[in-house]
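seq/struct pair 1
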Amino acid sequence: MSGHGFSSARGHRALELPQPSFLPAAGAVLVLHGGRADSLVPPPLLNLPGLRMRPFVRALDQDPLFADVLVASACYRMRGWNGQRAGPAQVARQALEQLRAVAGPVPVVLAGHSMGHRAALGTADDP
């Protein structure tokens, strides 16, 4: 997905968002890809779990019914969930904050697969 990455105070890009051609948006979708149970290494450039989610992102981007919906993806620091560390859930929260900074207080749908689904459930209490 081409567009802008947003960095947190620690310098990590938690959100990948295409350049919005419109604002205000009616809503947003945050896509959360899968990963591994345990791994402290960063995802590689060719990240298969991330690539698996691209057809969903593309379908939403191209569907005229969602023309006023921002579609963004989370960028994890590490490939794994890593037990209590739950890194992907923390990144999902940062991505939601960054998404709010761009789009304002719009409804957000969390769409996750595998570990991304776990991150979505761990973030679902976010207002």
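seq/struct pair 2
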Amino acid sequence: MPWDHLLPGAAALLATVFAVSAFGKVRGIRAFAESLEPLRLVPRRLLLPAAGGVLVAEAAVVVAFAGYAWGIGAAARIAFGGALALLGVFTAVIVLSLLRGSSARCHCFGRTGAVYAPRHVVRNAGLGAVAAFGALTTASSGTPEPVGALLSVLAGFVVGVLVVAMDDVVELFA
């Protein structure tokens, strides 16, 4: 099937984004928790547990992608489905922030980023489309040839790094 080569790249892209995001939160969980306050979604006393929950969910997605890489059959559906669910929640939070006119900043990758903007919605929608593709095609995918899979994974990793650096790239050209 044509998507047999695309699926490993999609997994690498999403695994890269979620791994960097989880690692950034581990390095600064308190700062991430405080970045949630302007969103006004949870009471102040629950900011740290909410941030911890996000971290655990992201780490679980990364672990599921690792399981997929090791050939564990159900891990692909869990990984892509989990990524899609998280991206849906994240996108809803960003849209709510934009509608409220909040000054909340994207602290998505463990460091303070730009104030939420429509580009963050577009980024998450694109990643969500990749996750939906993966979730829908894992059951019918075969085993890609090794060279094609390797190229796909490398491309996914590079795109993942670019996604993580999006705010920096935008600022560079602003």
